[in-house]
Design brief:
Layout lengths: L2 H15 L2 H10 L21 H13 L2 H7 L1 E4 L15 E4 L13 H15 L12 E4 L17 H7 L2 H17 L4 E2 L23 H16 L16 E5 L13 E2 L3 H8 L3 H6 L4 E4 L3 E2 L2 E2 L4 H11 L5 E3 L17 H6 L4 E2 L4 H13 L5 H17 L19 H14 L1 E5 L10 E5 L6 H5 L22 H11 L3 E4 L11 E7 L21 H11 L4 E6 L7 H5 L3 E6 L6 H7 L71 E3 L9 E6 L1 E6 L7 E7 L4 E6 L6 H5 L2 E11 L5 E6 L5 E5 L1 H5 L6 E7 H6 L9 E7 L2 E13 L10
Parallel strand pairs: 1-2, 1-11, 2-3, 3-4, 5-7, 6-8, 7-10, 13-14, 13-15, 15-16, 16-17
Antiparallel strand pairs: 8-9, 12-17, 18-28, 19-22, 20-21, 21-28, 22-27, 23-26, 23-28, 24-25, 24-27
């Protein structure tokens, strides 16, 4: 695009739009030095460093070139490296990140996963001149079951498992997860997560078991043993087990304000008391890797903190496996870039996760070892640790008896464990006599989560954000509605599904399933914990059913406690179901009784996170001064533990408006703080497209330049850009463009970037609904300042065109986002 044309686009967008930190950082550095003697002791089992293993490694390292040693300490993402690349760059590991899959297809069949992983393995093990065959270790985020694979068993996320208070269940979940991962060829899962989330505004709160380390301490060891089995000297992991990774070291759940990848501004005593407690039991159980967090402690990134990685983790805690970084986290260390960071190795990192920066990092690291910036002794120690884990994982033996056993994915015995986990994770907050529901009753099942396994599963499910999933993507799964329908049919009752609550015959009871939509990491960060602020659609549904004289049971789907007092008041019973996963029948097991209304299973779950009394109450944690939650840590009613809940206060407290940076036009509305404007030769009108007034039609007359733009106060989209998010639009072309069309992003008077989307629109079939995603990184590459975006979407043309759209928002790149050709 020419500079003149870009200038015009930026001008249109502008028409539409209308020293203390340095001091804190300096102060923080002086208090980010750990004192190992204060920390708990631990020790990797002697079986990890047995004489046979160490002798094998010594002999192997004597044959390795410097390039091969450096390669062992770098991990690439499979979306950015081919098997053939390994012939020139002998990397030690390949991973499949949250949106990475064979052929870029998140729904790829399991055999394709096996073939894909085998291709990398084959090149790494080739016998060719000048090459030492060393197997790669293939890593994957199997964080609530083997959640990357269609047909796998999807367990409740950790927040629900924490409510179960059942370490043996956790061990069995680890075993099932390991078997299903092994069946598809991967060697290593990035779990267990032993974070202790202290602020539910954090978008990763659901990845932690509890706000208090007591639960984490009891789970870290059993999950490690479930995934890996017990280590045995001189022998690899038993068949059906995979390498685990305790994460994220350290205090990722303790950042100020719950900000993802933020800073834990706490004393060392608090760092130890709250956030270190999950690591000793995992290390004692033999966890083979530990992943270091993106985040900081008092202003210093953990990835570059030698006192934590080397002095505490490898010294005081006696960890003998290898330390791995997180996704390009090394690039955030002061003085580093994604392709250059000697500081990470020198701090104690043994394998650096460089998903798309691996090539430049390999070359720079090789040079830094040669010139002494990274000591050879440090490199050799890192390589020994990586090889040690590969030996214990059995990768050199290359015996994989479960690989290709796709019958294990979603096997009935695995689903039974998941269903048990759902039952045990449910927390009953309120029951004024409506539960259990008689299986002979006429039941209405309503709410947008009722028949949506994807919503029940949350983020990190098939895709990173967990969005876009359909029930057909869970061929072995069961929705909550299907579970309820099955239970009441067995008792002679009936179940009617109506998402909007409309019914043909008045039911005896309504079960309404609603809550948060899927998200992961920063996309889930909140400014306060009010549920549906300013848009109480689900509350309106509950009230409408109550007004019709129907008893209401609310099943709340969420990755954290949220302020839901109005919704609880509008319900006769309220169940915190968390993110239960693919076994909706586990909810029916507890909610639906027998024909006479006797319970078949009781509620066992107890809150592992404090439930807020007000929306402005975060952070709130058991043991805090003035602790005053709505429902305290450990709370949970049951049929054998009844309790009366009266009318709750509906005052949310002093909450500011939520900062919305990712939704620009949804459900027929333009969410604040954004506005949707037409300027120049374009007219805008409202249409119905499957729902009342949910669409807008923009008509470019061709009588001069016209622009359709979303504008608002400057927003920081830098994290969304590095997180591979994209501008997504759902649209229908009603009249094709007859002149070029550009999509621009504006970030100030002299800052903007645009891409040509003419082919995207002109290639669409007239009258056919389509979706398009344009990567935010496209605009950054063209010079846009992503920290100061005042218009994330401005569509411009001087020609004729008619476009109808129902949604404009940011969405995860699930292999379907592009940078249009320039």
């Amino acid at each position: 695009m020419s500079a003149i044309r870009l200038g015009r686009v930026s001008a249109l967008a502008l028409v539409l739009a209308g020293g203390l930190a340095g001091v804190a950082l300096a102060q923080g550095k002086s208090s980010a030095l750990a004192h190992p003697d204060l920390w708990p002791k631990a020790a990797s089992p002697a079986a990890i460093t047995d004489a046979r293993t160490e002798a094998f490694i010594t002999a192997l390292m004597s044959r390795m070139t410097l390039e091969e040693k450096v390669g062992q300490t770098i991990q690439a993402d499979a979306a950015s490296i081919t098997p053939e690349d390994l012939r020139k760059y002998p990397l030690g590991s390949v991973e499949a990140g949250g949106n990475t899959a064979p052929g870029g297809d998140d729904r790829a069949a399991p055999p394709l996963w096996v073939d894909w992983i085998k291709a990398y393995r084959a090149v790494a093990l080739e016998k060719r001149p000048g090459h030492t065959p060393i197997p790669i270790i293939f890593g994957i985020d199997a964080v609530h079951g083997h959640n990357n694979i269609v047909g796998a068993t999807i367990f409740p996320h950790n927040i629900g498992l924490g409510a179960a208070r059942d370490p043996d269940l956790i061990r069995r979940i680890g075993e099932v997860t390991a078997r299903e991962v092994a069946a598809t060829g991967a060697d290593w899962t990035f779990g267990p997560t032993v974070a202790v989330p202290r602020d539910e505004r954090w978008g990763r709160a659901y990845e932690g078991y509890a706000e208090d380390p007591e639960v984490v301490k009891t789970y870290a060891g059993p999950m490690t043993l479930g995934l890996q089995g017990a280590l045995v000297a001189g022998k690899p992991l038993a068949p059906g087990h995979v390498v685990g990774s305790a994460k994220h070291f350290l205090a990722d759940g303790g950042t100020a304000g719950g900000k993802d990848q933020g800073d834990a501004q706490i004393a060392e005593t608090e760092l130890i008391r709250l956030h270190a407690q999950g690591y000793p039991p995992a290390i004692d159980a033999g966890v083979l890797t530990v992943m270091v967090s993106f985040s900081s402690w008092n202003g210093v990134k953990h990835t570059g903190n030698k006192s934590l990685q080397t002095d505490v983790l490898k010294g005081r805690m006696g960890f003998q496996g290898f330390v791995v970084g997180d996704w390009n986290a090394h690039g955030q260390v002061e003085g580093c870039a994604n392709t250059n960071c000697a500081q990470a190795w020198n701090a104690g990192m043994d394998m650096v996760m460089a998903p798309d920066s691996w090539k430049g990092l390999f070359e720079n690291t090789l040079a830094q070892v040669k010139d002494g910036a990274i000591p050879m002794t440090r490199l050799d120690d890192a390589v020994r640790r990586v090889l040690r884990v590969k030996v214990k994982a059995g990768l050199f033996d290359n015996k994989r008896p479960l690989e290709g056993r796709f019958d294990l994915l979603g096997a009935p015995e695995h689903r039974a464990v998941a269903r048990e986990a759902v039952r045990k994770s449910l927390v009953l907050l309120k029951n004024n006599g409506v539960l259990p529901v008689k299986s002979s009753a006429r039941v209405l099942v309503a709410g947008d989560g009722a028949d949506d396994i994807g919503k029940a599963s949350g983020g990190w499910t098939l895709t990173w954000q967990g969005t876009g999933n359909k029930n057909s993507d869970f061929p072995h799964g069961q929705s909550i509605y299907a579970g309820v329908a099955e239970a009441v049919k067995a008792g002679g009752g009936s179940a009617e599904l109506a998402v909007d609550g409309a019914f043909k015959v008045k039911p005896d009871v309504a079960i309404v399933v609603f809550g948060e939509n899927p998200y992961a990491e920063f996309q889930g960060d909140l400014t306060n914990v009010e549920y549906q602020p300013g848009d109480k659609r689900d509350l309106a549904l509950l009230k409408r059913l109550k007004a019709a004289g129907i008893p209401v049971v609310s099943v709340f789907i969420s990755g954290r406690p949220l302020w839901t007092n109005p919704e609880i008041n509008a319900s006769d019973a309220f169940v915190a179901a968390w993110l239960p996963g693919s076994e909706g029948g586990g909810i029916a097991d507890v909610l639906i009784g027998d024909k006479a209304g006797r319970p078949r299973h009781d509620f066992q779950g107890r809150l592992s996170y404090s439930w807020p009394k007000r929306a402005d109450q975060e952070p709130i944690n058991v043991g805090d001064p003035g602790y005053d939650p709505q429902f305290a840590y450990g709370y949970g009613l049951g049929y054998a533990r009844p309790g009366k809940v009266g009318t709750l206060s509906e005052d949310p407290g002093a909450v500011s408006a939520a900062v919305n940076v990712d939704r620009y036009f949804v459900a027929g509305r333009v969410p604040a703080p954004w506005t949707l404007n037409a300027a120049g030769a374009v007219a805008l009108k409202t249409l119905d497209a499957g729902a009342q007034e949910n669409a807008r039609q923009a008509v470019w007359s061709g009588e001069g330049n016209g622009a359709l733009g979303v504008v608002g106060p400057p927003a920081d989209l830098s994290r969304q850009t590095t997180g591979d998010m994209a501008i997504s639009i759902k649209f229908r072309v009603d009249a094709s463009p007859d002149k070029p069309v550009s999509l621009a992003l504006a970030c100030g008077e002299s800052c903007g970037a645009a891409v040509d989307v003419t082919s995207t629109l002109s290639g669409a079939k007239i009258g056919e609904w389509r979706s398009a995603k344009i990567k935010l990184s496209c605009f950054k590459a063209k010079g846009a300042d992503m920290t100061h975006v005042s218009s994330p979407f401005t569509l411009s043309s001087s020609g004729r065109m008619t476009l109808t759209f129902t949604e404009i928002r940011l969405a995860s790149n699930e292999g379907d986002a592009v940078c249009p050709p320039t």
